[in-house]
UniProtKB/TrEMBL annotation:
The keyword Cell inner membrane does not apply. PANTHER family: ATP-DEPENDENT HELICASE LHR-RELATED (PTHR47962:SF5), ATP-DEPENDENT HELICASE LHR-RELATED-RELATED (PTHR47962). Signal peptide: none annotated. Residues 238-395 form the Helicase C-terminal domain. Keywords: ATP-binding, Helicase, Hydrolase, Nucleotide-binding. The keyword Cytoplasm does not apply. The lineage of its organism: Bacteria, Pseudomonadati, Bacteroidota, Flavobacteriia, Flavobacteriales. It holds the Pfam family Helicase_C. This is DEAD/DEAH box helicase. Gene3D superfamilies: P-loop containing nucleotide triphosphate hydrolases. Residues 32-210 form the Helicase ATP-binding domain. GO terms for molecular function: ATP binding; ATP hydrolysis activity; DNA binding; helicase activity. It comes from Myroides albus.
DNA sequence: GACCTGCTGCGGGTTG
């Protein structure tokens, strides 16, 4: 039977009205498989290939919405995506009598109350709102979800390998337990790196199948090279070239940081105004006020004819609906392949159109990284993030949430509950007990009779609105002009009264800083600096670093490079030719200089960080540059380094003891994790070794490499 | 050189 015939009458009617000539491959496959099996499915297909419909056409056919209780739970990482999908699903349900409810922090309270009173239909929610449901409406969970048939997770790759993903998986387990229900899971994504890891969502990896439409849109690419000379400032020629590239098109520009977004938007606007051309240049990032961002998104979506450029960070990387753009500009390399795939997918969304991407680079290492990522993308390789094997920090958060939600639970019940929780599959009962003991010792929880309860101290933590998320957020000051919020900035020492900065593509002068209400009052000004934002380094995966070396030592030519890129690549290749590297898996350059030695690792950021940990442990001073892949040491020979590496094969007890000392001396080291500080010290050590460093992998890497030296 | 994500419930006021 054709997949169309499997669909219910109202759904077929809907399809007829859409004037679709045919169903897309991913839709056909999904309808067939979802309606004829009981498996979970991950639907993977390129952006704008109709994945939402692929999930909902069969689900709407399968589910009897006249029954009470929420039938379908759609989970999204972003509020903006929920708002977009709400409209789409509403259209899909036009001929069906189905209630659709948005449930997130900015959704209507009355709609939520209505759902509680009469739970049914489809609910669209964020993981954090789900967490809050367990905390504040625990007794409603069975009533809401005991008839749940499907959970749909949108942009599921975004959760994979992240703390938010561990939290989400734990929440799915908690729904199953609390509402005593078994649901099917449908995950949607355009970019999947690690299939095995994604299949674990929902706790039935063996019954979770992947439907993948690997067809990709033709993409035209060009690389341009404008070296930045001194400091962080862009080469003026880059800005002029960029202007020519964008001013007559609809474009998204991704320069990788909020400060650079402001800088580039400012320059482009300036050039355009000088030439009396249009002023549709926008800055879009997390520090620009939400209403302003929505205005920009809406401008892009509704505007059919006029050209515009939105300069943005990853805020416009996921599937928020802004319509189609003509081209995507990436300035310096993305940090991973999935990011590039998502960004490219934003152009040429209409059928038959090709995607267009222009990659600018401002130094040769970024150029090399960009080529590596582009080549891997062409090969269909996507890099993936990996979770900690023992995510103790999320465990501590979930333990607190469960105690709060249950309003008292015995220790044995709690241990048993988390032993079965598939989100913590490798964590043992003894380890769970240690986590609980630590919370008791730190007096976050207390024991009353047989039951564990949140203590007075703990109430402050679990009752704070900051409790629901597993990621940290810094204190921000609102930037206000004439009672209108422009955006928000972290307060830094550079910012004082009379200082000037760029935000939302305009220059502002600080009039007043109100510390109590966390406000910065500003007025427009003529010139100013880009604002300073705090941000940690972003890890680069091993396959990208390895590919960079492969390209560096090969003679491979790339026809998408402009002359300046070719020249820059040649200089870098010539520089490394002296090492006579043959095998990119094994050979690593060791550069002897007049008073220092540089080890070029071409390894993942995590491995580099771990090598530095080993060096610190052995009292060897080192300096590390992730972009250039190099660890700088005092003068040393390859023989000395081999000797040192063999010493790294140390008893893990020693490194544990060392890390304990490090943590005791500097407790802030654990702050890379929001909930890490509540863990016992041995679990803090484990978390560092597991999530921050990578000992096994690093030892394997060091045992495998052969150093190739230059002769001074 | 350095992304992003989310957030309760209540009480008091205003509006239709």
């Amino acid at each position: 039977m054709s997949s169309y015939n499997l669909l219910s009458e109202p759904i077929r009617k809907y399809i007829a009205e859409q004037n679709w000539s045919e169903l897309r491959p991913i839709q056909n496959a999904a309808i067939q498989r979802i309606l004829t099996t009981t498996d979970n499915y991950i639907l993977s297909a390129k952006t704008a290939s109709g994945k939402t419909e692929a999930a909902f056409l069969p689900i709407l056919t399968d589910v009897d919405f006249s029954e009470s209780g929420v039938q379908v739970l759609y989970i999204s990482p972003l509020i903006a995506l929920i708002n977009d999908q709400f409209k789409r699903i509403e259209e899909l349900c036009e001929h069906l009598d189905i209630v659709i409810t948005k449930w997130h922090g900015e959704a209507s309270q009355s709609a939520k109350k209505k759902l509680i009173k009469n739970p049914n239909g489809i609910v669209l929610i964020t993981p954090e709102s789900l967490e809050s449901m367990f905390c504040n409406r625990s007794h409603e969970i069975p009533h809401l979800f005991s008839n749940l048939k499907y959970v749909v997770i949108d942009e599921i790759h975004y959760f994979d390998g992240t703390n938010r993903g561990v939290q989400l998986n734990s929440l799915l387990y908690r729904i199953q337990k609390r509402a005593n229900v078994n649901f099917r899971l449908i995950g949607l994504s355009a970019t999947i790196g690690d299939l095995e890891s994604i299949k674990k969502f929902g706790g039935r990896p063996l019954d979770t199948k992947v439907l993948k439409d690997s067809s990709s849109k033709p993409t035209s690419v060009s690389f341009k090279y404008f070296e930045s000379k001194g400091g962080n400032n862009y080469n003026l020629d880059l800005i002029k070239d960029l202007f020519k590239e964008v001013y007559n098109n609809k474009v998204l520009i991704f320069p990788n940081s909020r400060g650079k977004v402001e800088e580039i938007t400012h320059y482009l606007l300036k050039i355009s105004k000088q030439g009396n051309l249009h002023t549709n240049f926008f800055a879009h990032h997390s520090s620009v006020d939400k209403s302003l961002r929505e205005y920009i998104e809406n401008f892009a979506k509704t505007n059919t004819y006029s050209p515009f450029s939105i300069c943005c960070t990853s805020t416009l990387e996921l599937g928020i609906d802004i319509g189609s753009v003509d081209k995507v500009v990436q300035i310096d390399s993305t940090f991973n392949i999935a990011s590039l795939v998502q960004r490219i997918g934003r152009s040429g969304r209409k059928d038959g159109q090709e995607s267009k991407v222009v990659l600018y680079n401002t130094n040769s290492w970024f150029l090399l990284q960009s080529i590596a990522i582009w080549e891997l993308y062409q090969q269909g390789v996507i890099d993936s993030k990996t979770n900690a094997v023992y995510p103790f920090d999320i465990l501590v958060h979930q333990v607190l949430s469960v105690i709060r939600s249950r309003n008292g639970i015995t220790q044995n019940e709690l241990i048993n509950y988390f032993e079965q929780n598939y989100s913590f599959e490798h964590v043992t009962a003894i380890q769970i007990e240690q986590t609980i003991q630590s919370l008791l010792e730190k007096q976050i929880i207390e024991q009353t009779g047989q039951e564990l309860l949140i203590s007075l101290e703990g109430e402050y933590i679990v009752n704070s609105k900051d409790f629901y998320s597993v990621f940290e957020s810094e204190q921000m000051y609102k930037v206000i002009h004439q009672n209108i919020v422009i955006g928000e900035l972290p307060l830094n020492p550079m910012l004082s009264e009379e200082s000037k900065f760029l935000l939302a593509s305009r220059v502002w002068r600080v009039i007043l800083i109100e510390n109590d209400s966390k406000k910065i009052i500003v007025q427009p000004a003529n010139s100013g600096d880009k604002p300073t934002f705090y941000g940690g380094p972003v890890d680069i995966s091993h396959i990208i670093k390895e590919k960079m070396l492969e390209i560096l030592i090969s003679k491979q030519e790339f026809d998408y490079l402009d002359q300046a890129s070719l020249d820059a690549l040649k200089i870098l290749r010539d520089e490394f030719a002296v090492y006579k590297l043959v095998n990119y898996k094994i050979d690593r350059p060791l550069k002897h200089d007049v008073n220092k030695t540089e080890l070029y690792t071409f390894a993942s950021s995590k491995i580099n960080r771990t090598i530095c940990l080993f060096l610190d442990f052995n009292g060897i001073k080192n300096d590390y540059n992730d972009l250039e892949n190099s660890i700088i040491l005092k003068l040393t020979t390859a023989q000395d380094l081999y000797k040192l590496f063999s010493k790294f094969n140390i008893d893990s007890k020693e490194i544990n003891l060392y890390l304990k000392e490090v943590i005791e001396e500097n407790p802030n080291i654990i702050d890379f994790s929001k909930w890490g500080k509540y863990l016992p010290i041995n679990q803090q050590v484990s978390l560092l070794l597991d999530a921050y460093y990578s000992v096994e992998e690093t030892l394997q890497f060091l045992n495998n490499i052969e150093l190739k030296e230059n002769i001074l």
